Amino acid sequence: MMDKNELARDLRACVLLFIVVCVLSIVYTLFINWSTQTIMPYQANGSLLYMNGTVVGSELIGQNFTSQGYFHGRPSAVNYAGNNSGGSNYGPTSAALMEQVRQRIEKVRIDNGLPANATVPADLVLASGSGLDPHISVASAFLQVPRVAKARGLPETDVRALVDRHIEPLQFGIFGQERVNVLKLNMALDELAMSRKR
Q1: What ranges do the domains of the chain cover?
Q2: 129: closest CA among 62, 183, 56?
Q3: Which residues contact 143 (CB under 8 A, 6 or more apart)?
Q4: pTM for this entry
Q5: Which of 56, 90, 128, 135 could pair covalently with 97 via S-S, beta carbons 3.0-4.6 A apart?
Q6: Is 64 within 8 Å of 80 (Cβ atoms)?
Q7: Do 180 and 138 touch, CB atoms closer than 8 A?
């Protein structure tokens, strides 16, 4: 059985350890916050994109563009909800997934004036694992150029050049594929359209 002195000593050690852990937790949190805000404030604050002083989104989270005058991104199983990322969990043999993909292919063909047998890039009809992928493939962006140019009343060559300028290289030069950030591209498209009206 412990005597009172041992109990008091152990209690002091526990209280001291608790205080040290609390202080270190606060110091660590403040240090991480300060260092990220100092070294990479853009990323630490959500990689937010602004247009005319207003936040229009994050370059890391896809959005649902449906207007004919905008480039469309990947479908989302979570309706682009940043607080609820995830996939549909349909397997490759799922009849529901096959029907969903068939409808999406048909919609892409109709929206873009493609023949009934035209090949459609997979990323325009399949959601990403997170449901929030902000990028599309270069092929998907170029496929949409005629529709966007027509809806905006812009020459296709200008819209195609805009896509060319927004092609992002492979991650670290070796991973993935070249891609286009849909929100950045659509923001540049708005700027191009506004500059033509001046």
Answers
A1: 4-41, 48-197
A2: 62
A3: 108, 112, 114, 120, 121, 124
A4: 0.80
A5: 90
A6: yes
A7: yes
